Each structure stands twice: as C-alpha cells, then as structure tokens.
Amino acid sequence: FRNAINPHTTSFTEFPEWFDRRREDQLDTGKESPSENSSALSPSSETTSPATPEIPCDSSQSKEQAKFSRVAMFCTGGVRCEKASAYCVANLPKGVPVYHLEGGILAYLKQVPKEDSLWDGECYVFDQRIAVSHGLKPSEQYSSSCHACRHPLSQADVASKHYVHGVACPYCCDDPDKQQKRPRYEARQKQIELSNERHTVHIHDPKEYRPQKEMVKEKNNLESLHT
C-alpha cells in the first residue's frame, strides 16, 4: 500500500522484536535507531495516506498515548494480522487505536475497484498463480517462483545465468544458507525429473506439479477403461 512502512523482516516471528524496538524509540523521543527512524508508529507523511487526515491531539490523552497515532496493518489473507494486531494492543499504551485489514490484501483486491484502490503492483500468493492483481487476476509479470527461496520470477529472471531450474535463482544464488543446501535442491530436482520421465507424481510437493498429477490420473482412468 502507498506510504506503508516495510519492517523488512524475513519471518513473521521477527515482528515482535521489530515492533518493540520501534515502540521504544517512539517512547524515548530523544533516541532513534541508527537504521530506522521512529515514524512507523507516529503521524507523518510516511505513514499517513494523502487522502487520510491526521488525528488531532486529544488533550485527555496521556503523554505516552500522544506519542502514537493510529496503527493499521495488513497481510496477504489477514491471519498474521490477527496475531500482530493483538500483540500491538497488548504492548501499546492503552487507548491507541489498532486496526488490521479484514480479509487481508486478497479481500481488498477482490472488493475494491482498481480506480479506487491504494494498492500498487501485485500481491504474492502461495499457490500456482504466483501473484495476483486487482480482481485477483493472475500475474502478468511473474511466471513462476524459485523452488529454493520462493521468490517470484519473471521471464527475465528465468533467463538469467544465475537461474537453475528447481535449484537457484538470481535472488538466492549468493545466499550462504541456500548455497549450503544446494546439493539437496539438486537431488530433489533430479528426483522430480525422474518422476516426470516415469509419468509419476513426485511426493515432495504435489501442488507444484499439478499438471503431472492430472496426467497420471488421466492415464489411470484410461487403463481402468481397458480392464
């Protein structure tokens, strides 16, 4: 969303630590993180949509409350925000409004017309569509995802010299953790290719190889007709 704050976390379990750090920076007005300012939890042009007015200061607010504006969050389907918003309510000064987007980005893209939307780009999803845009239309930019790091891949990414099908892509080819696991990815990809040659389904992740699964099902149906 426009003007949203990106915590740059790689796992949802990192959110509490990030949030606590930003909260403490905001409470201690004389202190700021060297890599992040305290605007994520306070009113500013970075966190407030141009179409959204600032909340006037309430004289009845405590000093702690006055240091925070509304907190609004979103995630793909809304599940993680249920947990994150509960954490925020429990760890912010009492009375600070905390909201999350009901149904997540997917519900927003489905319900809000593109011309009225504040969402830019596409939303990554955890299925064969890779990403979706307004109206939940499948991505036109991304055609697949990396089996190692799950990063969405465009045709240009697939054409990169760093792309190895099922093993690595330009986004994880230099990742030490992925390099350590590379033999495992190569072995898995080899098993997938052998399964394809045998017209069987690889057990690792059937959802990724749905066309092959359907082909096996069709083959079995044909065989049953001739028995």
Automatic annotation (TrEMBL):
- Region annotation Disordered: where it falls in the sequence: 1-60, 193-227
For bias kind Basic and acidic residues, which ranges apply? 18-34
Comp. bias intervals (Low complexity): 35-54
Q: Which residues form the Rhodanese domain?
A: 67-117
Per the record, where are the segments of Polar residues compositional bias?
1-13
InterPro entries given in the database record: Rhodanese-like_dom, Rhodanese-like_dom_sf, TrhO
Q: What name appears for this protein in its UniProt entry?
A: Rhodanese domain-containing protein
What is the native source organism of this protein?
Entomoneis paludosa
